[in-house]
Specification:
By secondary structure, the protein is an all-alpha fold. The chain has helices at 3-17, 22-35, 40-50, 54-65, 73-81, 89-98, 107-116, 119-131, 140-152, 157-172. It starts with a helix and ends with a helix. This is HEAT repeat domain-containing protein.
Length: 173
């Protein structure tokens, strides 16, 4: 396949994401699995916000949970911090423990989410920490554990347990 036809195919997929026909949108999402680029993830995140169809939401979530390309970590982390995506933040954080991508270098982001967010978001961020498999830097550990320890006194009763457990998990990483 020539570069021109690959480009045309990609453009057709992008156009399909904006269709009013759910079947065309779903077909385009599935085509992105084969012929998409990392940058296309942002298009899918925008689609999650603009199209509330259950099947489309589910298909995008599955797509994101199946990510394996380590380069996509930056895109997901950036979206988590972007207020544009606040409506899907919980889903984005869940992707971080569902996908086969290492998010250990973003431990500070997840610790902050555990401390500062409502219980549902905190729980998802805690689950990311709980599922980290890579070691975190010995320089980072004390800082993150101190942040968590400092947050205990001001935390709601339901979050105190999460914070205590997050401290224990980080000690083990």
């Amino acid at each position: 396949m020539s570069n021109i036809s690959k480009k045309d195919l990609h453009n057709a997929i992008i156009l399909g994401l904006n269709s009013t026909d759910d079947k065309v949108v779903l077909d385009s999402i599935n085509q992105l699995r084969k012929d998409g680029k990392s940058e296309d993830i942002t298009l899918l995140l925008d689609l999650m916000i603009s199209n509330s169809g259950r099947e489309i939401q589910s298909t995008i979530h599955s797509f994101l949970a199946d990510l394996k390309n380590q380069d996509t970590d930056k895109i997901i982390i950036k979206a988590i911090g972007d207020d544009k995506y606040i409506a899907i933040r919980k889903i984005l954080i869940a992707i971080c423990w569902e996908a086969s991508i290492d998010f250990s270098k973003y431990i500070s982001t997840f610790v902050d989410l555990v401390i500062e967010s409502d219980f549902e978001i905190s729980f998802e961020a805690f689950t990311v920490i709980e599922n980290l498999t890579e070691k975190i830097s010995e320089e980072v550990k004390p800082t993150e554990m101190a942040k968590l320890k400092d947050a205990i006194s001001g935390a709601s009763p339901e979050k105190k347990g999460l914070i205590h457990e997050a401290i224990h998990i980080i000690e083990q990483l």
